[in-house]
Amino acid sequence: MRPDLTQLRDLAEGSPEFGRRPAVAVSEAMIRDAEAVVGPLPPSYRWWLAEFGQGRVGDVDIATVAPAEFADDAYAVTAGWRLSGARLCFGTERDCGDSYHFVLDRTGEAGGGEHPVVRRDGLDGGEYPVAESFAGFLAVQVSRLRGLGDGPNPAVARLWRSTPGALLDNGVLVYGPHCLQERNETFEVPRYAPDWVLVGDDSGGGGLFMRRHGRDRTRVYRLDLGAIDEDVEADGDLMTDDLLGWLSAGRA
Fold first, then answer.
1. Where are the beta strands (DSSP E) in the chain?
2. Count of the separate structural domains present in the chain
3. How does residue 64 score in pLDDT terms, banded at 50, 70 and 90?
4. 129 and 175: one domain?
5. How far, in Å, are 39, 45, 85, 143, 207 from residue 35 at the CA level?
6. For residue 169, what are the CA distances in angstroms to 111, 135, 221, 249?
7. Is residue 59 classed exposed, middle or buried when 0-12, 13-18 and 19+ CB atoms within 10 A define those classes?
8. Does 150 reside within a domain?
9. Where is pLDDT greater, at 152 or 15?
């Protein structure tokens, strides 16, 4: 699913896990100059560069685009060591830790020119899948830093690997890792429906719930946020059993 840039902004601005210095937006001309060196950059990474230019998430320093005279500095995505075959390193942990790379010869589930992200282990050099887009990489990092693991269940985890939440034109909002905990605490979901997680809302007083455990972690139910109880399945309305398909259809 394509990254939702509104939710990406909310993630970046609402997460203390981001160590952004004052924004130094990168111009479109500078981004194009960098692309002449390393090839087309994923849209959500281009957005990050144009909005913030520099920063880090957790312990990962994110490469930026530098003026031509500094284009080979270590912090620039055009530094010679960052591009190796079909891998472009955009993120590095400090003290010789892991590194994060775009897989340039593959298109991720997010589509739209986004590339999957892999982590390269700083000790053994092994590669491990992380996300389906740069936006998904940021969402996964924030989720793990907040103790949410990859997500509250597999369906939401798969969504976050592409985009940190999604807002549809009809008002349906599926939360990203930057607000999921707060929304569940606000509506006391752990108290009234401990086997369920509030994954979003319809902007009209209805919450979207999915199971945390068990086999049935694909179905989404709508239940009034003022009537939360432990029997969401019986009291709620079934919306879908395919979260990503449902959201994609809503966008179309």
1. 55-57, 60-62, 83-84, 87-93, 99-103, 117-120, 127-131, 166-167, 173-174, 196-201, 206-211, 220-224, 237-240
2. 2
3. very high
4. no
5. 4, 12, 15, 30, 43
6. 20, 20, 19, 11
7. middle
8. no
9. 152
DSSP state of 139: H
State phi, psi for 201 to the nearest 5 degrees: -150, 170
Give me the helices (H) in the chain, please. 5-13, 28-38, 43-51, 134-145, 154-160, 180-186, 189-192, 232-235, 243-251
Domain extent for 235: 166-251
- If you average pLDDT over every residue of the chain, what do you get? 93
Q: Tell me, what DSSP letter sits at residue 69?
A: G
Nearest to 115 by CA among 132, 92, 138: 132
